[in-house]
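A reminder from the course coordinator: this example appears on the midterm review sheet, so study it carefully.

Given structure:
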């Protein structure tokens, strides 16, 4: 494997671009913010080392060189991230009485991080404070992976022809909320606010509700968003952005 002093990130970036089919020196220069002279220098070195052909196509030797260097960079970054997280203090809700210095297991519940004594879980840490059950405990030396099953985001929209007849939707809304368990409920706009007031649901996320729904889902908690059909058209840009950011979150759009 290469050593850190042997790694030239600009060189690796140029070879990576070539491996993806880019042959234009000017385009590589523009995309990587490297001078054209610099790109030419790297390409000449690649030719001399047999990493690319005269047609600026990567060879098997070039692929192997790129693979080894990218693997080293990946491992270096992962080790750095692990060291960063292991040295970072975290907070969790204590599920039982915990003594300072004890090893604890970590898990998610209702979208929040909990800790309990022992090392039976997939992720562990060391308690740096004592805590009674239900109190906050501070943690260090996190190891392992905290298991999270992403929740879903269900978007219920009020059809345009029903906006002025919201009382007809109250029973449907009550049924949806009843089967949703402890899902986060968010509203967007005046129609949604009115419908949920008629439904007598008052524990609501009223602003930035779409973002909150995805944040809840990625923490393992289901979420419901209520919005009028009028306002749905304004959500698609944000929705597409959030779908890309939270790829594991399942989304449904349903008419009331």
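Designed residues:
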């Amino acid at each position: 494997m290469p050593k850190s002093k042997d790694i030239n990130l600009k060189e690796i970036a140029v070879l990576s671009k070539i491996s993806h089919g880019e042959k234009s020196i000017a385009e590589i220069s523009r995309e990587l913010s490297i001078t054209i002279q610099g790109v030419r220098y790297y390409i000449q070195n690649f030719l001399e080392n047999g990493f690319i052909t005269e047609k600026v196509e990567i060879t098997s030797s070039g692929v192997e060189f790129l693979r080894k260097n990218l693997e080293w960079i990946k491992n270096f970054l992962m080790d750095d991230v692990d060291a960063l997280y292991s040295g970072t203090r975290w907070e969790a809700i204590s599920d039982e009485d915990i003594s300072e210095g004890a090893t604890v297991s970590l898990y998610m519940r209702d979208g929040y991080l909990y800790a309990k004594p022992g090392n039976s879980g997939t992720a562990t840490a060391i308690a740096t404070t004592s805590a009674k059950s239900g109190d906050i405990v501070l943690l260090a030396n996190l190891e392992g992976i905290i298991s999270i099953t992403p929740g879903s985001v269900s978007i219920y929209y009020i059809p345009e022809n029903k906006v002025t007849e919201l009382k007809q939707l109250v029973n449907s809304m009550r049924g949806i909320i009843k089967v949703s368990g402890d899902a986060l409920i968010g509203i967007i706009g005046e129609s949604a606010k009115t419908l949920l007031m008629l439904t007598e649901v008052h524990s609501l996320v009223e602003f930035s509700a779409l973002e909150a729904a995805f944040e809840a889902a990625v923490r393992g908690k289901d979420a419901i968003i209520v919005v009028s059909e009028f306002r749905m058209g304004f959500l698609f840009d944000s929705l597409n952005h959030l779908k890309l950011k939270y790829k594991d979150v399942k989304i449904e759009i349903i008419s009331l």
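The longest helix spans residues 60-86. Confidence is low (pLDDT under 50) at residues 1-5.
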